[in-house]
Each structure stands twice: as structure tokens, then as C-alpha cells.
Amino acid sequence: MRPKNYLETRLHTDGSRSFAYLCSCKEKSHGKLCNEPNVHGNTLDELVVNEILKYLEPDSKVNQLLKDLQNRIRKDNKAEGFTE
To answer: CA gyration radius for the chain?
Structure first.
């Protein structure tokens, strides 16, 4: 997938440019090898960012796993004589 920018005149109400993600196979074969619709880039980007931001919430499971891993690494480093 690659971003496909639309005309500069195609703007959202907030002034951001509209774009989509386009399958490169679809583009190269002119739709013969892939005929899936393009993915609305602005919407997809927002969904991905929101999912990533969930990991920053202190009570998230992933955040806790990362903190536990960080503590184990620090403990192992201290045991082997490494300093931060």
C-alpha cells in the first residue's frame, strides 16, 4: 500500500488534505490483479494513532507488560554490572 494524494482542492473542513492508501499491485496492473477499493488514509491513520495511544494509558495491559520487561532488564543489567 502506498499513499495516493488527491487534488489540493479536495480538503476536509479542518483544512487537511484528503488521501487514500492504494494497493501498488492494483496500480501496476491497472486493477487486473487487485480490485479492492482504496482505503481512506485520513481515517485509517486516525484509527492507527488512537490504537497506539492506548498503549500509553497507565492502566493498559501492554503498558504494564512493558514496565515489567523494563524492570527485568534493569535488574539483569545490574546483576551483570552494567549501569544506566
So the answer is: 21
